[in-house]
Amino acid sequence: MTSTSPLNIALIGFGTVGSGVARILSTQAKNIAVRAGREIRISRVVVRDPDKAREFLPAGVEVSTSIDDVIDDPQIQLVAQLIGGIDPAFDYMKRSLAAGKDVVTANKALIYAHGSELFERAAANERTIGFEAAVAGGIPIIGAVTQALTGNQILSLEAILNGTSNFILTRMLDEQHAYADALKEAQRLGYAEADPAMDVDGTDAAQKLAILTQLAFSTPVKLDDFVRQGIDGIELLDLQVAADLGYKIKLLATARLQNKRLEISVQPTLISCDRTIAQIDGADNIVAVHGDAVGNTTFSGAGAGQLPTASAVVADIIDYATGRTAVTFQSILRSSQQEPWPVQPAEELRRRYYLRLTVDDRPHVLADITDVLGRNEISISSVRQDETPETDEAGDGTARLVIMTHTTTEGRLRAADTELSKLACIRGASIRLPIAD
């Protein structure tokens, strides 16, 4: 360790992640000082309730409720912004940068929504932003894409980026639980929020994919630019049928170059069971990166949680202390100036599909459905109908049809959806999922 003066930092927020950062900095203080070349010292903490008891808060740290105490302290060099959401986090980061302080953050929603503006502000103030913890928790995917793999043209990303959804789908299949029961278990164990909407509707994974897409392909995208579908419409039946056919259903985030255009989507997807990405269960995440030089590389592990996320924050703090961030952040800024790839319209996505429909159990129903698919140029690979009891002469029974298609386009499926919804034989909502063999 050198004799350089300590690095004084402030933590904005001392919840799950903030206390995890303090814990790592406390328990690994000597090792971190050696790796950073200097002592890292928490000087201030900003919280909503200053009287709340907190573990791992170092003695002598000033605790307040005002960001002004950090902004006005000339001894604070680095701010760890560890609160979620946009407001007031966005304002806090802008003020920190304007005050000449560098920033690290775990706030994925903020980097997605305002990353470009914040990076520009950081550059204008000759500051840096570290955000490894914003995507995939403890998995070092930001560093991999922006440093280790920069000798490549990245050709594709395939990822499971939301641990809540992955946990729910795993428990549904392993324990034969209904979706609602698996969600309640996820909430009880702390894997899901009281309001899990952003996790289960695909928003969280889509925001993370958008961040990775900007870094890997120098292409900014918004959620409206690509197909986004959550797991909240998946039933246990779908998982069971998929398993019988040799697949697992995962919330798959994909960005790939195809015919010089960027194909991007976040959807529950049938993935062949023999693929590594299908074998990632529970709350874990995985990111598979294919580069033109390196080929396939895979990064997996805990995508959320106190210590995995805090680990990424501490790594950013150490990178700042050693001067690495000053170099890598400039590289990120330069990459953002490259010509973006055109984004392929959603209607032109080409995949195989899984269709599950509940229909009247009577003659000619299958013919009506295949007629609709045929007129929309959708070729069928296989049809499966669950055995049902005999119906009376009025034909009051229902049956479930599972249709696997050959490769077709999202646009053709959407057109077929519209026609199928008008058939009198269709009962309730249908499920349509892409297949990744």
UniProtKB/TrEMBL annotation:
One of its GO terms (biological process) is methionine biosynthetic process. The active site is at K208 (proton donor). The gene is hom. The keyword Amino-acid biosynthesis applies. CDD domains: ACT_HSDH-Hom (cd04881). One of its GO terms (molecular function) is homoserine dehydrogenase activity. NADPH binds at K108. NCBIfam families: PRK06349.1. It is an enzyme of class 1 (oxidoreductase). This is Homoserine dehydrogenase. L-homoserine binds at E193. It catalyses: L-homoserine + NADP(+) = L-aspartate 4-semialdehyde + NADPH + H(+). Its EC number is 1.1.1.3. Belongs to the homoserine dehydrogenase family. It holds the Pfam family NAD_binding_3. Keywords: Amino-acid biosynthesis, Methionine biosynthesis, NADP, Oxidoreductase, Threonine biosynthesis. InterPro entries: ACT-like_dom_sf, ACT_dom, Asp/hSer_DH_NAD-bd, HDH, HDH_cat, HDH_CS, NAD(P)-bd_dom_sf. Residues 354-434 form the ACT domain. Pathway: Amino-acid biosynthesis; L-threonine biosynthesis; L-threonine from L-aspartate: step 3/5; Amino-acid biosynthesis; L-methionine biosynthesis via de novo pathway; L-homoserine from L-aspartate: step 3/3.
